[in-house]
Structure formats: C-alpha cells, structure tokens
Design goal:
heterodimer, A: 203 residues, alpha+beta, 5 strands, 50% helix, 11% strand, elongated, B: 77 residues, 4 strands, 21% helix
C-alpha cells in the first residue's frame, strides 16, 4: 500500500514538473531586474585580489615620503621602525641617547625597550579602527598602520600611550623574537656603517 | 588613510586661493568631525629629523605644509 502511494506521488511529481518550471520562468520574467549595485558588484569588489596589494603599495610610498631615509630603510629591510622615546627620567639621560625607544610593527603592538641594555619594557596594544561604520571588518594596510603609529608617537607620544592597552612583553609578541629583532637592528646598523641615532646594545 | 583602501585623496588646492581654502577647511572639519586625527609630516630644521605634528585647527597647519594626512584615531587594541 505504502509503495503504491509513493509510486503515485512520484508519477504526480513527474507530471507536474513542466508546470512548475513554467511557473518559475513566468515569475522570473515578471520580476523587476535586480539592481546591480545591490550586491553583485559590491561583492565582486570585496574579492578584488589586487585591491589590498595596490593599497599596500600606495601605503609604502606614503610611508617612505614621511619618514627619513634611515627609518624607511629599516622598515624595508627589517619590517619595523624604531622611534625614540621623548621622556627622560634623569637629567643625564638628556645628554646621550633616549632612555627608551619603541619598535613599531605593522598590526602588532608597539614594543618599548631600553636601548642601552636591550631590556624589554612593555607592549602597547593600539589600533586604528574603521570609523566609517564598516563594522571593523577593514583595517589599514600594513604600512599605513606603521605610519599611523609613527605619526601618533612622534607628534603626541603621551596621548597614544594613554589610549593603548599596556601589557608585559609576551602577550602578542614573542620576547625571543623581539630580542632577535633588536640584534638584527644592531647588525643592520653595523653593516650600514652609519652612526645610529640611538646607541643600542648589540646583543 | 582609509581602512581597507589605504591612501585616498580627499581634497587638494592652494589655501591662498579663497575658493580653495573654503573647500579645504570644509573637508578638514568634516574629517575631524568623523573622528579622524590630522597630522602634518614635518622636518626638524636643525637635525633634519622627521616627525609629525598633530593639528586640531585648520589655522594650526604650517604654511609650508604640502599635505595633511588624516588617519583613524588610536584606540586600545
């Protein structure tokens, strides 16, 4: 009995298929055409594989035009920029190099350290979120992120540090890797043969 | 600087020309109203050291500045 009912249902479905197809086609024909900018093109632009690459290329040019030659070379060769701290704890600190400095990485916290000893001080987690209401989906290209940190630090260090979340080094950065970066930086300066702006422990 | 896009030219003109100046001021205010920070890259005259100067008013922009860069304000990450 059940088999007979299933067979009847199947036959009815097969017979009704042309009617269903015709109904769908009629409905498609009478529906107003979908606006192309409602989703199609926008979605396509989201998947433009060259957009981020072009944005990063522009960002690198902008960064290069803002920082000095040494900082640009540092970023190009090592992937980060060092920025000297402005404050001095003692009067004697003002005579020599800065008491502390920052390593500015793209899309990673700023690391504060003591150039004279290589001691790592802290991580400052800071970001530059999309204010245009895109829901934080987008972020700055890597080089723009570095430039934003550089501009914020060199113009108003206190403000950006106040806004940042402070952590001990190790939350997002691997301390061993940061120490290795400091060593790479010292070697890089030695190879360049230039007098470093910030005297730093080589190891 | 615009997240997801990078550098975008917002406005350009000669601030000594009245019409241009009005347009530049309008765009400057619009960006600050949207919560952006504005900075002018500068070169220290003595040492040649590069740094940025944050500007909060259009009149704070140095006369010799070639550009003002707007970037999202920093927040704790």
């Amino acid at each position: 009995m059940l088999f007979a009912l299933l067979a009847l249902a199947l036959i009815a479905l097969v017979l009704a298929t042309p009617l269903i197809v015709n109904a769908i086609e009629r409905r498609r024909a009478t529906r107003p055409p979908r606006r192309r900018d409602e989703g199609g093109l926008e979605q396509l632009s989201l998947y433009d594989p060259g957009r981020e690459r072009r944005a990063e290329q522009r960002a690198r040019e902008l960064l290069r035009s803002c920082v000095n030659e040494e900082e640009w070379s540092m970023y190009r060769d090592l992937g980060f920029i060092r920025v000297a701290g402005r404050h001095a704890r003692r009067e004697s600190d003002k005579q020599g190099g800065p008491a502390y400095a920052y390593l500015v990485y793209p899309h990673k916290p700023i690391v504060a350290y003591v150039p004279a000893s290589g001691q790592l001080l802290s991580e400052y987690c800071v970001e530059f979120p999309d204010l245009a209401g895109a829901g934080g989906r987008h972020r700055l290209p890597a080089s723009d992120d570095v430039l934003a940190k550089w501009m914020a630090l060199t113009s108003d260090e206190d403000r950006v540090i106040r806004r940042a979340n402070l952590h001990l080094v190790g939350r997002q950065h691997d301390p061993a890797r940061v120490r290795r970066d400091l060593w790479r930086l010292a070697e890089w300066e030695r190879r360049r043969g230039s007098q470093p702006e910030i005297q730093q422990k080589s190891r | 600087m615009k997240p997801g896009h990078g550098e975008v030219l917002l406005a350009e003109g000669d601030p000594r020309v009245e019409e241009d100046e009005e347009r530049l001021i309008e765009e400057f205010r619009r960006q600050l109203d949207e919560g952006m920070w504005a900075a002018v890259p500068t070169t220290h005259p003595g040492s040649g050291r590069r740094e940025a100067q944050l500007v909060k008013n259009f009149t704070d922009i140095p006369i010799e500045a070639e550009r003002v860069i707007f970037f999202p304000r920093a927040s704790g990450g």
